[in-house]
Amino acid sequence: MLSAPARSWLPSVLFVGAILAGSVVGLTAPTVAGVLSSATDALVLLLVAALFAGVRPDGLAALRRAPRAVGLVLVVNLFLVPLVALAVTAWLPGEALRLGVLLYCLAPCTDWFLGFTRLAGGDTVAGAALVPVQLTVQILLFPLWLAVLTGAGATSGGGGVGLGAGSEIGGGGVLPALALWFLLPAAAGVAFRLALRALPPRWGARALGVVDRAVPVLIAAVILAVFASHVRTILGEPSAFVAVLAAVAVFFAVCFVLAEAVAALMRSPRPERVLLGVATSARNAPLMLALTTIALPDEPVVQAAIVLGMLIEFPHLVVITQLLRRRTRREARLTPPPSPAQAAVARQSTQGGGVGTW
């Protein structure tokens, strides 16, 4: 049985494998690449449905129990993190690369961050409350961010990695596509989860477990199709994608330092500080990959930039989780034992619902 930190490395390995396999197929088997390209839409639909089937419904009830922690994470994720993202992406070559990294950085995670929060001893009750709030906000903001970052029907040059002239960025192009290709499978995923309530709890839990385990496989399948279809375009500027990896690494480092500074300024208790550190270090790459594939289907550079962000994110989450766990244990040794009432509150704050790591 793998430990949780070991399991958390598996998505990165899976995604790297999908990139390599897709690149090989795209370069050596154009017929197979064409088949994979035609399957991309179906894979994205399945991914969106699986993501929404996995959303836990207990978050809104938890919101009343941890309003301060939820508010603090939202302020950092929605107001401070975008400033960091704009700063670290300003030097990237090409508008498409900048757009992809920005879309990746602007969407806080709504699923697996809870697993890392629990591992590090953070407040998972507040984390569960964040899931529906952050998910709703980022879906509503996606068309707005897209329009603000690119302009309606924007084009760009610069190193051959700009948005194409045929891209419909404005609301007239994005909103109908999102309604057709995103809202319908999202509704199907929610309906699937609701239908499971009619089953015995044991069967429903097994079905949700299957869906959770299918998500990384579906993401890898989308990555495989994207790289198989567009590998020649993506590999046209290899140095540009090295710059993407560097920008994402800097982004996560700055965000973690920022979260630590905010927690110190607000004198956050230990579980809240851990939650803030993890929640600002995890991004919702699967949802952004799905939305971007729907809204900008002919922009493989934008999609590839989001995929590359995921390769940095998981190792970063593993590292900071270990750092936070060690600090939590060290502080616990130096802190007097809590009263029974304080111990009960602490147990409640770290046993909230949510998904685990993959």
Protein topology:
Elements: H1 4-28, H2 30-53, H3 59-63, H4 67-89, H5 95-105, H6 113-119, H7 124-150, H8 171-195, H9 201-234, H10 238-265, H11 270-279, H12 285-295, H13 300-334, H14 340-349
Helix pairs in contact: 1-9, 1-13, 2-8, 2-9, 2-12, 4-5, 4-7, 4-10, 4-11, 5-10, 5-13, 6-11, 6-13, 8-12, 9-13, 10-11, 10-13, 11-13, 12-13
Task: Tell me briefly what this model is.
This protein has 358 residues and is mainly α. It is built from 14 helices and no strands.
pLDDT < 50 stretches: 1-6, 152-172, 349-358
Percent range for β-strand residues: under 5%
Major sheet characteristics: none
In total, the number of domains comes to 1
How far do the termini sit from each other? 13 Å
Shape descriptor reads globular
Provide the CATH top-level class: Mainly Alpha
* Count of beta strands: 0
| CATH topology descriptor | Na+/H+ antiporter like fold
**Helix coverage percent of residues?**
over 70%
Description of the structure:
With about 350 residues, this protein is mainly α. It has a single domain, classed as Na+/H+ antiporter like fold (Up-down Bundle). It is about 75% helix and about 0% strand. It has 14 helices and no strands. α8 packs across α12. The chain is globular, with a radius of gyration of 20 Å. The protein starts with a helix and ends in a 9-residue tail after the last helix. Keywords: Cell membrane, Membrane, Transmembrane, Transmembrane helix, Transport. Pfam families: SBF. One of its GO terms (molecular function) is arsenite transmembrane transporter activity. Belongs to the arsenical resistance-3 (ACR3) (TC 2.A.59) family. InterPro entries: Arsenical-R_Acr3, BilAc:Na_symport/Acr3, Na+/solute_symporter_sf.
